[in-house]
Amino acid sequence: MENLQPPPQGTMEEQYISKLHPVVDYGAGVFLLIIAILTILGNSAVLATAVRRSSLLKPPELLTVNLAVADIGMALSMYPLAIASAWSHAWLGGDTSCVYYALMGFLFGVCSMMTLCAMAVIRFLVTNSSKSNSNKITKSTVCILIAFIWLYSLLWAILPLVGWGYYGPEPFGISCTIAWSKFHNSSNGFSFILSMFLLCTVLPALTIVACYLGIAWKVHKAYQEIQNIDRIPNAATLEKKLTLMAVLISVGFLSSWTPYAATSFWSIFNSSDSLQPVVTLLPCLFAKSSTAYNPFIYYVFSKTFRCEVRKLQCCCAWRIPYFSSDNSMENAVSTMWSGRDNVRLSAAPRVQNPAAAAP
């Protein structure tokens, strides 16, 4: 290990030289390789399942497919360059690849955030609407919404290219993103950060929280009004599973990116040297891991997805453990790609499924 030295300082720009110990660089590369493999395999299974059951997909489930596209797009377009740079102990490609990498990260990051926001809003609307009103959410409507999400994300991603905001290397040298430290004395840059923070982070996050709190309250009220005592245990289990599946997807994404957002905002108001390079590296790696979570959540909560994944095993040598659960709840929770109608809460004694197809 003593012979692992970074490239000489004079061979490239200082900002693209790794500020980390070579062992840390190798470890970061291995971590990203594992995340990339899990992301590509998991989200490929999601997309394959969606293709196989395309005729049964309900409109809200198209947003789940879009989220998988964003995650796998990030893994394919960004992680190979990041891994190669980590193992080279310096950023590869200079300014051009740095701008490309940062743009891709911003594009897919905003797309994922807005997709999660749209999933929460649609699920809230379907949960609180009658059957006739919920049928107004068609595949065409969701496709238009998805197109708007991509255009909105692309708009924000290209703004730094036209002079509002900047892209640049991370403080540790082997990754690129929005150049947070350049905004310290720039009114132009600070206005970009403030607008981006409000419109791409705070408002979507608050919307997600408000929608799922509304869904939880609706489920809770319907549960309280159940008159048939024999159905209460099932209703309680249903409430738990539906809440977990819907919320874990959003919580996983938000919790992964919160440490990164915190360190980024710290660097806006403080010198980039005020934090150790490894301190800025860890939140970055944690944020990138968000692309790998969702397929595991689907696998645990969706019986349909588990069955489809097992069908794909005929081409693979690996096996996936079976997560068993109460059979009476399986059909209620396995709404993803199941072809069931979107269901709504009912305060009547006869209990109906209390949410739309889970995202």
UniProtKB/TrEMBL annotation:
DNA repair in keyword set: no
Transmembrane segments: 26-51, 63-87, 99-122, 142-167, 190-215, 242-260, 280-301
Major localization listed first in the record, in broad terms: membrane
Location within or outside the cell: Membrane
Gene Ontology BP, a term: phototransduction
Keyword Transmembrane helix: yes
Listed CDD domains: 7tmA_Opsin5_neuropsin
Record-linked SUPFAM superfamilies: Family A G protein-coupled receptor-like (SSF81321)
Domain G-protein coupled receptors family 1 profile: residue ranges: 42-298
One Pfam family from the record: 7tm_1
Gene Ontology CC: one annotated term: membrane
InterPro entries assigned: GPCR_opsins (IPR050125), GPCR_Rhodpsn (IPR000276), GPCR_Rhodpsn_7TM (IPR017452), Retinal_BS (IPR027430)
GO terms for MF: G protein-coupled receptor activity; photoreceptor activity
Membrane topology summary: Multi-pass membrane protein
Annotated keywords: Chromophore, G-protein coupled receptor, Membrane, Photoreceptor protein, Receptor, Retinal protein, Sensory transduction, Transducer, Transmembrane, Transmembrane helix
Stored PANTHER family: OPSIN (PTHR24240)
Protein name: G-protein coupled receptors family 1 profile domain-containing protein
Organism encoding this protein: Zonotrichia albicollis
